[in-house]
Design goal:
By secondary structure, the protein is α+β, with helices and mostly antiparallel strands. It has five helices and ten strands; from the N terminus they run αβαββββααβββββα.
Length: 264
Amino acid sequence: MGTANTFRTDLYSIHNVIQNTLVTHPKEIFIESLREFFSQDAYYHYVSDQWGFPLTPDHTGLPNDAGVDDDLTTRILISEPYRMDVIYYPSLLVRSAGSRFKPISFNNEEGSVQHTATRFVDGYGNESIVIVPSHFIKAGAWEGSINIDIETKSPRSRDDLVDLVSLHFVSLRREQLTRAGVFVKIATVGSPSESDDRTHGKIFKQTVTCEIRSEWRRQIPITNVVDAINICVDFGNLDTTPATIAPNLRVSTTIELVDALSDL
């Protein structure tokens, strides 16, 4: 499952952000998940065009059952609110309904350190594994909602899609979404409603709302903030109680971090 999502910004890399699952990723992962789900169906069959958009061609001359046993057209629109000035029913329109910051600790995990195991082998074949700190971590969580607006031309289609979409997010794809970084806490179904479309027909509507939890995370390389290790040695007699330290006798040195690791 992919979203073809690309951030046109340098700010994530500048500030060492490796995850920020707030609005863009949850919304696009919901859309892609629904498209994969309904592409397996025969009646509510989803088909995309060569650019990844719903395949909505001119239906002039197409049979009434086009899209059931073929890929001539999509039989359901799954998208954000409209990509162009068209109306297509039935439709599943995915939109963000807002989010809020949720701390996972008092200090956003500041002070946590990620370690990396490095294997060193010298010229004599001696091998050692050295575990060194690699990144400082800052992390938090987001909690919000994603709305799936269901719009159809018949109440039965609306009810069918409400059942399918609700089950999709609470069971069929819940684990898959969790692995993608979006945890569905609960799904609720709003009240059904009706309205008139531009042809003076009826549109039957209902909204499925998924309460979600996601995370943001920064991993700041230690090499960006630690250039050297300062070592200070005091001399004295440790056998006495209390231990005595020789006055005015101290050896201090500075070792570059890269040199210290290469000498291990």
